[in-house]
């Protein structure tokens, strides 16, 4: 997981380079997703120069989380 956090800066600096981390914007409120292994997803919100953790779960749990917003 620490590796993933360290790679975020590089992924945002080169958004078109495929890094395999599955970084993508999911919601218009500024929520982004990044894959952690095959089954887990981390959701976070970007605010100025910080990434704020929002949610951790499987693909299905992420879908349920967005339905609850």
Descriptive overview:
There is one protein chain. The protein is of the alpha+beta class and 69 residues long. The chain has helices spanning 2-13, 59-67, and strands spanning 24-27, 31-36, 40-47, 50-58. It has a 4-stranded antiparallel sheet with strand order 1-2-3-4, covered by helices on one side. The chain is globular, with a radius of gyration of 12 Å. The protein starts with a helix and ends with a helix. The model has no long low-confidence stretch (mean pLDDT 79).
Q: Over the alpha carbons, how many angstroms does the gyration radius reach?
A: 12 Å
How many E-type strands? Answer: 4
Give me the number of helical elements: 2
| N-to-C SSE string, H for helix and E for strand | HEEEEH
Present the secondary structure layout.
Layout: H1 2-13, E1 24-27, E2 31-36, E3 40-47, E4 50-58, H2 59-67
Antiparallel strand pairs: 1-2, 2-3, 3-4
Protein traits:
4-stranded antiparallel β-sheet, alpha+beta, 69 residues
Q: Care to give the gist of this entry?
A:
With 69 residues, the protein is α+β, with helices and mostly antiparallel strands. It has helices spanning 2-13, 59-67, and strands at residues 24-27, 31-36, 40-47, 50-58.
